[in-house]
């Protein structure tokens, strides 16, 4: 790459083009094959372009190359041009700019927001300090003017109580609030182009809907262009004007969003569209007769509260009410989906069931025996009957162990079988989850995300457990892999006659996998019933909001969502504060709705 810093070229802007990437090639050391090959991309002023593809397709590499950030990650631009319109009808060749010139362009002309706002914000600095820094780096303004710009940006993203947010730290905000702060930071200098790299992937479906509505409103109000990077075709249908589909470093299809969705030409585009979970696509479930046998898992009046201490004597000053009086059963051969937003108590409930945290009160029955009354030895034996599949398969596998040893570990801990019997069991499980025999001798880093999750599933069923808790088991996977893993879980549920508690925030995934659905909100179980009853006739306003937030995977059915600044209720309550008494009323057979009993 040239290091000269000429600001302009005589290259004329074509119509209203803002950014034009031509024949981009990017390589990384040690790889013969370029990560991006001959990619061209055009974004007009005020246009929303979606760059779509799965992990490793080259979408993020393309965006980072345009901002010249790829060089900080070890990548090298080995071909092509990126032309940015300079506001006077001429184009700047971004690949010919010095780093000093690029620093002026980043933030001012082109801004970027990332997938995980918590890792993008400094945890030890206030929101206000980080916003001020972004503004003052790019604009020659004093403190008072910087504060006005920051408050205006926070108001623009519909963040409640913007003055108070400036004094808060990132950990004091919800995921949706943090992402709004990141968007405000990007918008503070009024860029012409916003690059949004998977900005909603880590968010709950209701928060995702809010962020998409926010970006659409800002784009309409300001005329800003957006390059939206995603693997979710439902999100593309909600927001994009045009689409470019990437596969293995190349653009395989591009066009108007309506044309691409209605008449996709490339097989890979069709695969992405077919694989996208669509609410309402699952066939109606047959009504099963009620189980008369003992449930595999029975949670009864479970309460989980975490004390908050303070003061000179360390007294308990308040409690975090994580789970409040929750009851449900899961039968063998059944999948109960537990749904709700981050902070609703799903994970606290799962930890209590596994006794990774001790409940405040209530009972947890595993095959009829109270799990909470077990001593250490009884609990160790019982743990074989309840297993877990985690959200991030790579984080839940020991990177220093081979796959055969990972799957064998629970069998060895519980002393089930001889060495030869364990080896035979491991080989059978590896085959059963769809991995090749040679996978036994490989390490986790040698597999894709979907293959690693198959290893986790094999480990979970190794002991023939009564109950499996699957905590967001497909949310970290590409959409084409999600369906395969969900099908595998369903097959193993029937084959091993296991009860599955499936924790998720994705209603389209839940529809595909569940027999019954339980909805949690602010630590309380507010609605539970058969899958079709919850999805077709939701009774609680929050359940309706969850379903309304699911993206419709076709642009012809795009909805104009209302933008609402929503406060998340704090789960912290004073000592002695008790929730309002309630009943669970059966509104149709097996479909229960929580109703408060007001004094």
Automatic annotation (TrEMBL):
Lineage top rank: taxon: Bacteria
Subcellular location: Cell inner membrane
Protein name: ABC transporter ATP-binding protein
Annotated source species: Roseinatronobacter bogoriensis subsp. barguzinensis
GO cellular component annotations of the record: plasma membrane
Protein family per UniProt: Belongs to the ABC transporter superfamily.
GO molecular function, one term: ATP hydrolysis activity
Domain ABC transporter: 21-273, 297-547
Topological relation to the membrane, as annotated: Peripheral membrane protein
A GO BP entry: transmembrane transport
Keyword Nucleotide-binding applies: yes
Lineage of source species: Bacteria, Pseudomonadati, Pseudomonadota, Alphaproteobacteria, Rhodobacterales
Database matches in InterPro entries: AAA+_ATPase (IPR003593), ABC_transp_ATP-bind (IPR050319), ABC_transporter-like_ATP-bd (IPR003439), ABC_transporter-like_CS (IPR017871), Oligopep_ABC_C (IPR013563), P-loop_NTPase (IPR027417)
Alphabetical UniProt keywords: ATP-binding, Nucleotide-binding, Transport
């Amino acid at each position: 790459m040239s290091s000269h810093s000429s600001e302009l070229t005589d290259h004329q802007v074509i119509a209203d083009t803002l950014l034009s990437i031509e024949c981009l090639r990017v390589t990384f050391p040690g790889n013969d094959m370029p990560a991006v090959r001959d990619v061209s991309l055009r974004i007009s002023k005020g246009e929303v372009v979606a760059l779509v593809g799965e992990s490793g397709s080259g979408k993020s590499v393309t965006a980072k190359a345009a901002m010249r950030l790829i060089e900080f990650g070890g990548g090298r631009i080995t071909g092509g041009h990126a032309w940015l319109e300079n506001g006077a009808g001429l184009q700047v060749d971004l690949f010919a700019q010095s780093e000093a010139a690029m620093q002026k362009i980043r933030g001012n002309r082109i801004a970027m927001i990332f997938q995980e706002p918590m890792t993008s914000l400094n945890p030890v600095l206030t929101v206000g300090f980080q916003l001020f820094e972004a503004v003052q780096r790019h604009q020659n303004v004093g403190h008072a003017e910087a504060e006005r710009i920051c408050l205006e940006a926070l108001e623009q993203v519909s963040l409640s109580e913007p003055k108070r947010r400036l004094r808060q730290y990132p950990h004091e905000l919800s995921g949706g609030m943090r992402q709004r702060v990141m968007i405000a930071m990007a918008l503070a200098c009024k860029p012409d182009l916003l690059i949004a790299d998977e900005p909603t992937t880590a968010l709950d479906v209701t928060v995702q809907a809010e962020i998409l509505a926010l970006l659409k409103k800002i784009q309409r109000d300001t005329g800003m262009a957006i390059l939206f990077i995603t693997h979710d075709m439902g999100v593309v249908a909600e927001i994009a004007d045009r689409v470019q589909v990437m596969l293995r470093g190349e653009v395989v299809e591009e066009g108007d969003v309506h044309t691409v969705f209605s008449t996709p030409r490339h097989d890979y585009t069709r695969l992405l569209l077919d694989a996208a979970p669509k609410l309402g696509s699952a066939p109606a479930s047959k009504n099963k007769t009620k189980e008369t046998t003992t449930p595999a898992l029975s949670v009864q009046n479970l309460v989980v509260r975490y004390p908050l201490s303070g003061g000179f004597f360390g007294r308990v000053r308040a409690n975090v009410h994580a789970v409040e009086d929750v009851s449900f059963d899961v039968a063998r051969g059944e999948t109960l989906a537990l749904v709700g937003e981050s902070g609703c108590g799903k994970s606290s409930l799962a930890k209590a069931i596994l006794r990774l945290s001790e409940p405040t009160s209530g009972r947890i029955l595993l095959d009829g025996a109270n799990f909470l009354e077990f001593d250490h030895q009884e609990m160790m034996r019982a743990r074989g009957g309840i297993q877990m599949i985690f959200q991030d398969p790579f984080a839940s596998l020991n990177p220093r162990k081979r796959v055969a040893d990972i799957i064998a570990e629970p069998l060895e801990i519980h002393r089930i079988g001889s060495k030869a019997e364990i080896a035979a069991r491991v080989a059978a499980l590896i085959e059963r989850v769809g991995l090749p025999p040679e996978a036994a001798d490989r390490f986790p880093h040698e597999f894709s995300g979907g293959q690693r999750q198959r290893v986790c599933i094999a480990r979970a069923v190794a002991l023939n457990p009564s109950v499996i808790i699957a905590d967001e088991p497909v949310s970290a996977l590409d959409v084409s892999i999600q369906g395969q893993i969900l099908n595998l879980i369903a097959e193993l549920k029937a084959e091993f006659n296991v009860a599955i508690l499936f924790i998720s925030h994705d209603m389209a995934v839940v529809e595909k996998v569940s027999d019954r659905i339980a909805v949690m909100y602010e630590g309380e179980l507010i609605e539970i019933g058969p899958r079709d009853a919850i999805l077709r006739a939701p009774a609680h306003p929050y359940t309706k909001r969850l379903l309304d937030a699911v993206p419709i995977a076709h642009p012809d059915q795009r909805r104009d969502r209302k933008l609402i600044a929503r406060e998340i209720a704090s789960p912290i309550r004073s000592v002695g504060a008790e929730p309002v008494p309630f009943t669970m009323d059966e509104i149709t057979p097996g479909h229960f709705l929580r109703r408060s009993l007001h004094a």
